[in-house]
Amino acid sequence: MKALNPGAMPAPFGDYSHGIAAGGVVATSGQLGLAADGTIPESVAQQAEICFENIRAILNEAGTDIENVLRFSAFVTRREHMAAYMQVRDRWVARLAVKPASTLVIVSGFTRPEFLVEVEALALLPDAASAGE
Q1: What InterPro entries does its record include (predicted)?
Q2: pLDDT for 55-112, tens place per residue?
Q3: Parallel, antiparallel, or unpaired for β 69-76 and 101-106?
């Protein structure tokens, strides 16, 4: 197993890794809308953008990218946030021939009330992805 903690991202909030590469897959921890400078944007769309940028950084550190994502799991704090999140997700996967599986759940909240969305991903490493073609 290999821990994935890109240096450009804020450190994890606790004793865990942002991602793990093992057995041909990469699993990311849930990513929140926390910018590298420690700020948290007010909008769901801006937070979701940061979540996806962080996921891409984790995947890149493992040697893979968004096109090898098998599944996104996302969590929003209000039903009204679903559309804004989905617009960001859809833009991130628009160019992909095979769209990842996706789950979206409404939750009561996160570690800080200003967080509105959290996204995690499961992806294949390139060797595993080409073996499945």
Answers
A1: RutC-like_sf, YjgF/YER057c/UK114
A2: 999 999 999 999 999 999 999 999 999 999 999 999 999 999 999 999 999 999 999 9
A3: parallel
Asked if 17 and 29 touch (Cβ cutoff 8 Å), the reply is yes
23 is written with which tokens? 């057995």
Q: In one letter, which amino acid is 133?
A: E
Which three-class secondary structure state does DSSP give residue 48? helix
pTM above 0.85, yes or no: yes
Looking at residue 104, the DSSP 8-state letter turns out to be E
Pick the CATH number of 2-131 from 3.40.1550.10, 2.60.40.10, 3.90.226.10, 3.30.1330.40: 3.30.1330.40
